């Protein structure tokens, strides 16, 4: 098994720690509260590196969730995606899923402090990445751990004359150690449900979703949403612990995922809905400009 250097952030105000692995795609592999692990470990880091089996908090970039075909068009240019090349991977139906940066080793750490980690990835210098997403830009992740809060700030800077589509997201696998899944309560904000077909692609329908609090019980959830407003809060609680995911800014869509096969729940911040890179409906970073999106995980 390959060994990777890790960076562990420590909250000065509590026993909370967060561990990142920059050379394995800037994935967060641990969020620990006095030794209690709050991130789903699933198959572990090696399976993520070898087979892109997600765990912890991976970045989904440059698109989150699925695309409905192996190609998309932006500003008149057509991009063809080749599964197995340039980081493109597919799901069981053969459609591209979760972008191209799974376990990508090319991140450069620029700041490493007790409670802060910053790393960047220059797409303009990576021909393999540009083949699947031909929009030169600088991608920066800035992570801080303070006041029992993990803050993840993502900045996209367009470095040439090309506009850069914003369709990325994150996939935090949250768990409540010592509390049976059936006893977890989940809370979701007011937003809009986007039903999908059997391949997980939105049908085009839209259904209002009011703010909801419910026991997870034996429910299996894999639902997409849009019209998520800045400041929306998702939460899971049980026993004496509560974990909130705050969509502070820039995440207008979400996926809520609670599989039957693992004791995890995911509130996935997404900068655009599923398949937006093909359908439109995403923001663009204009040439020479930067756009930042932020979410926080608050442990109480």
Automatic annotation (TrEMBL):
Signal peptide stretch: none
Any GO BP annotation: carbohydrate metabolic process
Coiled coil residues, start to end: none
Designated name of the protein: Aldose 1-epimerase
Origin organism lineage: Bacteria, Bacillati, Actinomycetota, Actinomycetes, Mycobacteriales
Superkingdom of source: Bacteria
InterPro entries, per database record: Aldose_1/G6P_1-epimerase (IPR008183), Gal_mutarotase_sf_dom (IPR011013), GH-type_carb-bd (IPR014718)
GO molecular function annotation: carbohydrate binding; isomerase activity
